[in-house]
Amino acid sequence: MAMLTVRNLDESVKAMLRIQAAQHGWAMEEEVRRILTQATQGISTDIKLGSRIHGRFKSIGGVDLPARQLPRPAPKF
Question: Is residue 29 included in any domain, yes or no?
């Protein structure tokens, strides 16, 4: 198992984590583990960046980008 240290965490965030953990009946460390696990469950590294961006904006109708014109002319120096 890996260890993770979080520095410069705001005291109010720490306090809320402690309260939330107590409400669930487990330690603050377990609360953080569950939050991190839940936050990363839907992320897949198999999906390419372009597809992830498309999926992010799909719900608002997408974004129209100009079509690329290939081949591009060579730069002149």
Answer: yes
The residue behind tokens 């410069």 is 8
Q: What amino acid is encoded at 25 in this protein?
A: G
Note whether 31 and 17 are within 8 A (CB): yes
SS3 content of the chain, % helix, strand, coil (to 5): 50, 0, 50
Query: Domain containing 16: what range?
Result: 11-38
The whole-angstrom separation of Cα 28 and Cα 19 is 8
Radius of gyration of the chain from Cα atoms?
22
Tell me the whole-structure pTM to 2 decimals. 0.54
pLDDT digits (tens, 9 = 90+) for 40-54: 887 666 778 878 788
Quick check: is 76 in a domain?
Answer: no
